Amino acid sequence: MATETAGQRHAGRGTVAHAPAGAHAVRPMRADARRNYERLLTEARTAFTERGTDTSLEDIARRAGVGIGTLYRHFPNRTALMGAVFQGEVDALMTRARELADAPQPCHALVDWLRAIITHATTYRGLSRTLMAASADDTSGMARCCVPMREAGAALLTRAQEAGAVRRDVSIVDLMQLTNGIALAAEESPDDPELADRLLTLTLTGLKADRPRD
Q1: Average pLDDT of 160-188?
Q2: What are the CA-CA distances from residue 118 to residues 14, 57, 186 (Å)?
Q3: Residue 166 gets which letter from DSSP?
């Protein structure tokens, strides 16, 4: 943790410049910087999968063959690294949301998408907790994941509400928090593989409108 704080102070002095999404089009990275960036993402993805999202950043840098300063040049903090690592999974969830956008049963489409989110969140130990913390902070390094997912979910939720299947007072922010909470509970109960589905079913019972059409 001390190293992360030091890295963030280092970034605050203007000597560390990371390459967020969108910046590459303005100032492309050199070939060696790109290689370091990709190695860091590869090692971080492996580490997060095997040991959880709180794994040592120093260890990730060492396994990538770079110094911790190089890691901070690309990713000023842990959540920025996590956001970059999980971008591929977020892209897949966005694609799935688009596939479900015209599904004949809007409520079922919403449930299918929520199940996909739970599967994604439980792939990496600690991810669901981070998503819960970052859900209301659009300045977080995880905003690149949370914001588009919230927008995609809002569209699916609106369709289900317009179909009369989900209560009008349900918000996508609350629903995402509930979903991440279910993922966290499933993560903490690895011996109960059916827990997530049971909790999701229980949650959806409370979401249903009085006279659902779907």
Answers
A1: 90
A2: 38, 25, 9
A3: B
pTM of the entire structure? 0.72
Name the pLDDT band for 37 (thresholds 50, 70, 90): very high
Distance CA(43)–CA(61), nearest Å, equals 8
Contacts of 28 (CB under 8 A, 6+ apart): none
Query: Is the distance from CB of 76 to CB of 10 less than 8 angstroms?
Result: no
Could you tell me if 213 and 160 are in contact, meaning their C-beta atoms sit under 8 angstroms apart?
A: no
DSSP 14-74: T------TTTTTTSPPPHHHHHHHHHHHHHHHHHHHHH-TTS-HHHHHHHHTS-HHHHHHH
Is residue 3's pLDDT more than 70? Answer: no
Nearest to 61 by CA among 70, 48, 74: 70
How far is C-alpha 73 from the chain's CA centre? 22
